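Our preliminary data section would be incomplete without showing what the modeling component actually yields. Below, a chain of 219 amino acids is followed by its predicted structure, encoded as tokens that our downstream tools consume directly.
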Amino acid sequence: MEIKVLKDILSANDQIAQRNRQLLDKNKVFAVNVMASPGAGKTSLILATIKKLKEKFDIGVIEGDISSNIDAMKVSKEKIPVVQINTGGECHLDANMLNNGLNNMSLKDVRLLFIENVGNLVCPAEFILGEDIKVMISHTPEGDDKPYKYPLMFHTVDVVIVNKIDLLPYVNFDLAAFSEAVKGINSKVKIFPVSCTTGQGIDEWVGWLEKRINRKSTG
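Predicted structure:
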């Protein structure tokens, strides 16, 4: 019975996600679902990317948190539209929550939309939202074993960002072994080692993202 209930929930979610995608495609909005454990640097990556691209694209952000609007306040300082979604205890965003967020944002004024998911490496992997790409952030202080512990997350994403590489000399993180493990789970995934603190690797990530945005805008 529990399996059937879960399938019913995911089926309903997928139908709403499809409508979200149709809405985003109609407005030529490129949507990025950003997932990570707490403290990995979701907001930091979003802010670093905004600073590189805000002169080229109109950007919006939908912030997902169990409670509070701390991250939304940080992003709003960049003078871009931000919609806060508080899940009230749910450990992930779902397609219906995103739909409510989209209905509270003027999509005609947005070309790049960041969706900051709730900090979790389990639940968000189960729920598609209607996004164009899924991005998972891992960070060096949490260790290089996460692909083995959370394989579904790594299997479902399009991009893995390895944040805080400026700390590699001080933490036990084998970047080569981590990358090999990720590619073993998902051979098509793109991996970008970055430091949101020093800016190392951000240009490579932003350059790749910019090409994807332009492809959708001109398609």
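The first helix runs from residue 2 to 26. The domain at 2-218 is CATH 3.40.50.300 (Rossmann fold). Preliminary results of this kind motivate Aim 1 of the renewal.
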